[in-house]
Amino acid sequence: MQISLVYAVALASAFGLLLIWKALRFLKTPARRRLCSLLRKRLIYTTFYRRRIGSDNVSILTFLKILIYFVANIAACALDVGNREELANRCGSLFIINLVPLLLGGRTSLLGDRLIRLHPSQSSLIHRWVGRVCITEGLIHGILHAMLDPRLTIVQSLLLSLATALMVFSFIYVRRYMFELFIKTHLLFALMFVGVLWFHIPFRNRRALVCLSLTSAVWLVQKILWLIRVGNQNSGRKAANEVTITAFMSKSGVPDAASVTVPLKKNWLIRPGQYIYLTLPGVSRHCAGFIQAHPYSIAWVDGSEIILIVQRFAGFSANLHHANTHTNFEFSRIVDGPYGSPHHLNSYDKVLFLASGIGIVAHLLAIRDLLVAHENQSARVRRITLVWFLETTNQEQWVKSILQRLMENDQRHIFTLAIYIPSEDVVQDHTSLGMYERCFRTDQALDLGWFISKENLAEAGSMAALVCGTAHFEEAVRHGVRRCEQDIHLLHCGFQPEDTKVSAMARSRFS
């Protein structure tokens, strides 16, 4: 590939972006706002592919980014290629380049979480697609060289086998149904792959060696810092009780969720929307709990304790509920966190929180902080509304006490709570949260587009809508925001609740 051609394309792209930016500055403020609102609704709020379990929503803009990344790699591999050997060498070079952001990803990436401040869904999406491209280029490199010289060495055979294993175990069906197996095998195969790669790259290929050396060094330093951080967080003189687990029972007498109170040995600065990785060695099958770390969104902070709400699914959460069926138990723990970056909501006049089921846990701390900021006159917000779509009435008990505290802290009456419950249960407990003036419970169907538009027209000023729910619920919110003529900023939480049979049955109650 000619260097002059690459330079010309890069220069033209940079110049074109500069012209677009300058042209936008000439537009009047109302016109610029309308244009930005239109672009957000068409590119960001429109879903190209709805997420499934173990995946993420892909918007039109995200799809375009992925497409550009694919096209760039294909062009770099195939443009002006002479023969198979040159194609194999190019794929190998691009594989090494793409390996840099790939190795710096993962759940314990301090670079992505602290510096770049990527949300978990964004980091996971980047890691998956870069990994797919990287492994594909590595396999093409290996297969083409095997076709040119069928006599493979042990190192080459190991690399091809490990690359194939990484690709097979990364399929969505493996991640969905064998998540614990995927996590452990993925890390093991990745470490083995990088280790064998050191024996494969020749010393004369200085560019590849420098790239691999820097990446490995940064990865190693990052992991050492992470281990020091985790050790420091879980040690100290400060006395801390063990983890307390309290089950919430469903109507059938089977626990469907649990409140997990985790005491902290160190003082943490916890912000809304952050999450932790929790390890409970005493709660696992096959005595393997000490190597399992599970992410949970922080629902509440009470002094030196954090509260998690864990919904029951298969695997670890099922073991958690099985160990604590009818009473309270205490367990030792290892806590890693907090991770995640909060949304900055203080600059909006109106904030609308929308949640379905367990998604409520992502909003509670944000509402508390906004109420405190409004009381201290450090935020513009003057209207806060929470819409909670209950899939079953039992879910109201999960955060009942926390919602009562939020209502009591609302001294200036800017917080409104609307709870949508199943129709067959509406008459059973119409005062479960107490007689609060700004708390409404209804069994009517939830028209998200109408509700969002009503909230936006209730008062003047800018508005943000923060959603956390199942894939279908979030898609309905996206559609409702696109239907509104006004400019509304739609934000998504890092926590993404999974679809269940109960949530699937409740889809007919919202639109």
Automatic annotation (TrEMBL):
One Gene Ontology cellular component: plasma membrane
Reaction catalyzed: 2 a Fe(II)-siderophore + NADP(+) + H(+) = 2 a Fe(III)-siderophore + NADPH
Cited SUPFAM superfamilies: Ferredoxin reductase-like, C-terminal NADP-linked domain (SSF52343), Riboflavin synthase domain-like (SSF63380)
Topology in the lipid bilayer: Multi-pass membrane protein
InterPro entries noted in UniProt: FAD-bd_8, FAD-bd_FR_type, Fe3_Rdtase_TM_dom, Fe_red_NAD-bd_6, Ferric/Cupric_Reductase, FNR_nucleotide-bd, Riboflavin_synthase-like_b-brl
Protein's name according to its UniProt entry: ferric-chelate reductase (NADPH)
Family according to the record: Belongs to the ferric reductase (FRE) family.
Record-linked PANTHER family: FAD-BINDING 8 DOMAIN-CONTAINING PROTEIN-RELATED (PTHR32361:SF26), FERRIC/CUPRIC REDUCTASE TRANSMEMBRANE COMPONENT (PTHR32361)
FAD-binding FR-type domain residues: 235-345
Subcellular location: Cell membrane
Chief location category: membrane
Keywords in alphabetical order: Cell membrane, Electron transport, Ion transport, Membrane, Oxidoreductase, Transmembrane, Transmembrane helix, Transport
Gene Ontology MF terms in the entry: ferric-chelate reductase (NADPH) activity
Residue ranges the record marks as coiled coil: none
Keyword Membrane: yes
EC class name: oxidoreductase
Known EC number: 1.16.1.9
Any matching Pfam family: FAD_binding_8
GO annotation terms (biological process): copper ion import; intracellular iron ion homeostasis; iron ion transport
